[in-house]
Amino acid sequence: MRETKITFSKRETTDLIKAWALVSLAFAILYSPDLTSQKFLYTLLASALTAGLGFALHELAHKFVAIRFGCSASFRANMFWLWIGLAMAFFLKAIFLAPGAVIVRGVQSKRENGIISAAGPATNIILAALFMIANFFFVGAWTIILTMGAVINSWLAAFNLLPILPFDGAKVWQWNKKIYIAMMALAISLLVIQFIW
């Protein structure tokens, strides 16, 4: 019988918190480089609710779907690349993050592997759409946060769908090209809408 119980080890929980914090900090530095300003604290909170949330739910989606297929799955942070990403945001005003990955163990068919891989970007696409829809109902400071959430999650989806290993897109492409094209089209469309809206 396949195991479907979702559990988190102490290390996995710690790794998720570290990665969430550093991803949020990197985006906050990118959007508000003056670390001493009050605006930076606001931007850090906004980043945690948009980029940090998008990252965390992306990885948890991989984990939950993998476990649903009877695999063992656990997130591991990549501290080297997290610090590199943070340094790039600070010194180069650019973002390139490889915060870690969900390590999946267990026999997987091409279909299962494709669905597990698609779960992360699909989560970002859904989040981007929700942020965009919510933007119709809120004004003021919320508009900035919601726009930020839509842009970042669209970008996360499109970036992770690149059809080259180790990105999720390579496994989705190998599994089902029609689904891959539909997901990439959605991610890019949501991203473009934010810039012409």
In short:
It contains seven helices and two strands. With 197 residues, it is mainly α. It has one domain.
Write the layout of secondary structure elements.
Blueprint (H helix, E strand, L loop, with lengths): L9 H22 L6 H31 L3 E6 L1 H14 L7 E6 L4 H25 L6 H20 L7 H8 L1 H20 L1
Antiparallel strand pairs: 1-2
Account of the 3D structure:
The chain is mostly helical and 197 residues long. The chain has one domain. It is built from seven helices and two strands; from the N terminus they run ααβαβαααα. The chain has helices spanning 10-31, 38-68, 79-92, 110-134, 141-160, 168-175, 177-196; strands at residues 72-77, 100-105. The chain has a two-stranded antiparallel sheet with strand order 1-2. α2 (38-68) packs across α5 (141-160) and α4 runs antiparallel to α5. The longest helix has 31 residues, at 38-68. The chain is globular, with a radius of gyration of 17 Å. The relative contact order is 0.13.
